[in-house]
Amino acid sequence: MSHALELVLRTVSVLAAFLVLPLLVGQTEHKVMAHMQGRLGPMYAGGFHGWAQLVADGVKFVQKEDITPRDADRPVFKLAPAVSLVPYLVALAVIPLSPTVVAADVDASVLFVLAASAVGILGTLMAGWSSANKYALLGGMRAAAQLLSYELPIVLATASVALAAGTVSLPGIVHAWHPLWLLWQAPGAFCFLLAAVAELQRPPFDMPVADSEIVFGPYTEYTGLRFAFFLLSEYAGIVVMSLLFAVLFLGGWHGPFADTIGWVWTLLKAAAVAVVVIWFRVAWPRLREDQLQRLAWLVLVPVAIAQLALTGVLVVVTS
Amino acid sequence: MSSNQTDPGSPAPKGRGAIPGLIKGLATTARTLARPSHTAEYPDAQPHLPPRSRGVIALLEENCTSCMLCARECPDWCIYIDSHKETIPAPTPGGRERQRNVLDRFAIDFSLCMYCGICIEVCPFDALHWSPEFEYAELDIRDLLHEKERLGQWMPTVPPPPALDPGAPEPAEVAAANKPPRAARPARPATTVRPQPPAAQGDA
Ligand code: SF4
Ligand code: SF4
């Protein structure tokens, strides 16, 4: 009985975090972008600092008509937003905020998170393929190419950390973490961050959705709530990737009073990463398709492999 | 190792410029983040327009002589003037009657006007003026045709003319009023008096 109750409690808390954190990131993005671009638009709705902007956005999305193109592959088309959203929920469940605050303590949680979050991009592919629209198809193809190129640096960089820690469990990695890792694993962290942004198809890696060239890529045909789900999954992706970055490279709950407020540290570090991700979007121009592939294969993959080799050598030498 | 080592293959393969450029972009946005925005919140806060801004054209009806100069010079032909002549009876018996123009209609179509200001420049009687008021948008384009009553309503919004430059000469009418009255001509000196022929003297 208590076991069942605990299960429900954990599920509900993960669900709550999943519903709240992406909205927080979205709100932050509105405000940070507005400030960075010297705009007042998002500061208007609701009075103080435009706090109601997201509410207004939500109301707008709900009002829109829900359209499915006649030639679309209906089941796939309708399933796509869910497919892109749910994996991040699953991934969020195994990310530890502190040794005790974790919804599901899985052994090989690193592998689990990587596998789960990689499924998310499948939703984009499904959307692009099933929309019966050339722009959507093009966007889907670009998304597929991007997924293939950027999955590798993520996995390699994560493997390096796992190798250094000698475990594939996220709490285990944080336990083994040491401030020196900030220097030692920096190239890997750099690769991971860039690849994560690319995985989320956010600027400057938003070639698949390039709204000025291929309208909105895979999401061209989506309207209303389904479109909002895609947006939500992008923000959920930021949450998952930021948390993952904080746990893998920034030492998760390490910090003063880690025993009591460890989870606050994790959240704070993740929030900082999320702001950096937003910052990238404001500051950098979109990469062209060939530049995007170049960056992945000529920079990120070699750096990640070098990092892995370095980690391997050091681990063997020191142990 | 640092991220600098990834220079060669960085996004823009132009070479050295890419990484500094990216960092500069980050720095610029961060600096803007820390600074308040300078956006003018127009509907909430009225803009401070310079007095010579071209918002709308005001008509001072009393000054207008219906000379039609403005209508003729307007490149868009958007000024409409109707007038008729009235005869003013002579003020004194036996005097001459006078005629004068009476303005019946003066309208400017602001949907055609291009705000060149030529009409205001050419008016010899200072009947047209620029007003900085600009909030007269209409839902129907036909409502942009302002008749002389509406044009006259803009008159109070016309800012006073700018003060004269300190080094400028006085305005002509002031200069004329301030001129000292001309001194009486001095009498011709006696030496210049031509000697009269003696014969005439004898006659008197
Ligand atoms: S401003 Fe120019 S266009 Fe407008 S009414 Fe005067 S002369 Fe015509
Ligand atoms: S130029 Fe001046 S005086 Fe002549 S018709 Fe136009 S507004 Fe009247």
Automatic annotation (TrEMBL), chain A:
It is found in: Cell membrane; Membrane. It catalyses: a quinone + NADH + 5 H(+)(in) = a quinol + NAD(+) + 4 H(+)(out). InterPro entries: NADH_UbQ_OxRdtase_su1/FPO. The chain crosses the membrane at residues 7-26, 79-98, 110-129, 150-174, 227-250, 262-283, 295-317. It is a multi-pass membrane protein. The keyword Protein biosynthesis does not apply. This is NADH-quinone oxidoreductase subunit H. It comes from Oryzihumus leptocrescens.
TrEMBL record, chain B:
InterPro entries: 4Fe4S_Fe-S-bd, 4Fe4S_Fe_S_CS, NADH_quinone_OxRdtase_chainI. One of its GO terms (cellular component) is plasma membrane. Residues 165-194 have a biased composition (Low complexity). Residues 55-84, 104-133 form the 4Fe-4S ferredoxin-type domain. It is a peripheral membrane protein. Its main location: membrane. It is found in: Cell membrane. Belongs to the complex I 23 kDa subunit family. This is NADH-quinone oxidoreductase subunit I. It comes from Oryzihumus leptocrescens.
